[in-house]
Amino acid sequence: MKYAAVMFDVVESRKYYKRYDVQKLLMDCVDYLNGIYFYEIKKNVVSSAGDEFQGLFLDLQSAFLYIRKLQILIYPIKIRCGIGYGEIKYDVEEWASSAFDGEAYYLARDAIISIKKGKSNKICFNTKSKYDKYLNEFCSSDMQVKARQSQVVRLIELIADIMLPIVYKEEDTQFYRLILENRYRLIEQEHWNRVSSRYRDAEILNIDCELLFESREACTKKKDGELLFRMDEFWIRGMSTEIARVMGTTRQNIDRYISLGKIKESRTMDKAIFELLGEDIW
Length: 282
Fold this sequence. Notes:
Blueprint: E1 3-10, H1 19-36, E2 41-49, E3 52-57, H2 60-74, E4 79-86, H3 103-113, E5 122-126, H4 132-147, H5 151-163, H6 173-189, H7 209-220, H8 239-247, H9 251-261, H10 263-277
Parallel strand pairs: 4-5
Antiparallel strand pairs: 1-3, 1-4, 2-3
């Protein structure tokens, strides 16, 4: 049986002068996501060496969802990730992921080695399929869009993902309050993580988490029509207005950030990658 092995580490981790805050946020998010994706995980994601992590998933879609969600949660921290798809040598229930071995892990290791250069979030798949190069080009293009997004745009991405996730999961409002507190502290304290972009802005702080999760219930019940010959935009009517309410600003202001940061394009690419991973070609 094939599994999706995930390996990731922190980009330029030695430049963080408050590495405890970085490690604490990473561990908290990994623990949280291990619980959220419990039924899709073969072996929990664990720290294998300092700021290096690995885990084992039942399929490629779940592995992608996990890493995508982690990237959204831990901003401004960046990670590079290799995902391998293959068999494992041993299947011992008591062993942690870091003790496992086999083709899936070899492929994941080769994938992460191939993307060691660079300072941005990166995801690379290695499934021994002829389609890998196309999948990885999609991932690269997606990450390039995200790398140019400002702080506020990344915050809107986080809110949009709570309101309308690719796959619905029960989540904890209190956890997101802690995530936002950590995000503000890291952005304020670490001068090295400023986003390079043509537009600069200040982080919007007044997020109404209760209202956000109320909006989530309404958004996930809405369904738009689907086209068979092209990818539908991963956005629904009225989301800009709901995000503006949650962030205490105007819809026009949110629409400006959505346009500048290409949020709709980025989310649609994420959904396209997810659906491609579900095709019977891997």
